[in-house]
Design a protein that fits this description.
152 residues, five-stranded antiparallel sheet
């Protein structure tokens, strides 16, 4: 069964997303126009805001997770075209080995992909701070990644 999830994150810096993917061992696929998912919208399942069912599976870029058949779509946000959002089919199905998008959520901290969104936020903030000439230092506290910035 398909269930496309919108990750609540507006991506403004694709280079930061690419770096976050590298740091997490994910493969950013620039200009890949489709992402792997169930392949068709199932009646009754929600459709992300601003999209039509026939647009699902299309993207501007994609993210591949090692060992998983499904992918994450990096899609221009129809509600704010200067940003991108992440879409993916992370629902566990009756055939969990064949339809394995749930593994993406499991590997990245849950269905909202908190480890990817957190890493993106830190990398994007780090890039902005360094552009202003600030020193940055990352600190890990449990599963939380913190960025400390100091002006020089």
């Amino acid at each position: 069964m398909s269930h496309i999830t919108t990750i609540t994150l507006e991506i403004r810096d694709l280079e930061a997303l690419q770096q976050a993917c590298r740091e997490l061992g994910l493969e950013f696929l620039p200009n890949q126009r489709t992402y792997a998912w169930y392949g068709k919208h199932v009646a009754g399942e929600p459709i992300p805001e601003g999209f039509h069912a026939d647009e699902l599976g299309s993207c501007d870029h994609a993210i591949r997770v090692p060992g998983v058949n499904y992918e994450i779509g990096v899609v221009r946000n129809p509600l704010n075209p200067s940003t991108f959002i992440l879409l993916g089919d992370f629902k566990k199905s009756v055939e969990p080995d064949r339809y394995d998008g749930w593994k993406i959520a499991e590997m990245l901290g849950g269905p909202s992909l908190p480890w990817l969104t957190q890493r993106y936020g830190v990398v994007a903030a780090e890039r902005l701070a360094k552009a202003k000439g600030w020193n940055t230092q990352r600190k890990t506290i449990g599963t939380t990644l913190k960025l400390v910035c100091n002006s020089t």
